[in-house]
Amino acid sequence: SPPQDSSDDIEDVSLFDADDDVSRRSKKSKIRHPVASFFHLFFRVSAIAVYLLCELLTSSFIACMVTIILLLSCDFWAVKNVTGRLMVGLRWWNQVDDDGRSHWVFEARKVPAQGGKSSSEAESRIFWLGLITCPMIWVIFAFSALFSFKVKWLAVVAMGVVLQGANLYGYIRCKVGSRKNLTSMATNYLGKQFLRQVSAQGFGILR
């Protein structure tokens, strides 16, 4: 009868819309770059694990130090050059112009107005969680080494704070974008000096 047909039509449209919403949500939550997401956490978590367990695994401080610094250097390069660009569409780098002046560039991928692909919510959570949490852990390690008089570990934990803190600062600047009123001129100057020293140390290690 006609009333039954009209009710069937309404139910079909409702179910279709629900399925479409579910598919949209699944696309947003899907991890599009599983390899990049894995290595975004692998190097930094491995460096923390080696720092915590090295005294149980080996008695050689040199071996532990080299391993941790190597992992931190790989993490610095991977996060700066690969995972930030793929997972959240952000990147930062140093550029030297024709006059020989060195300046820092912070860039964010433009999101199309209609029909464009946005960053995956799952990847964004993974990226920012790893980016923020791990430097905080290294800061805790630094205070722990200082107050427990583990002087030989201070250089290692300082490297962790500097390298991972540099990426954190760079990507926060990328996220903020052109809203320069959020930072003062003094903060910008200190940040540039900080990044210049970090890059010199990081690239020196990679060489």
UniProtKB/TrEMBL annotation:
UniProt keyword annotations, A-Z: Membrane, Transmembrane, Transmembrane helix
One BP term from GO: vesicle-mediated transport
Transmembrane segments: 59-79, 126-147, 153-172
Lineage: superkingdom: Eukaryota
Chief subcellular location: membrane
Membrane topology note: Multi-pass membrane protein
Protein known as: Golgi apparatus membrane protein TVP23 homolog
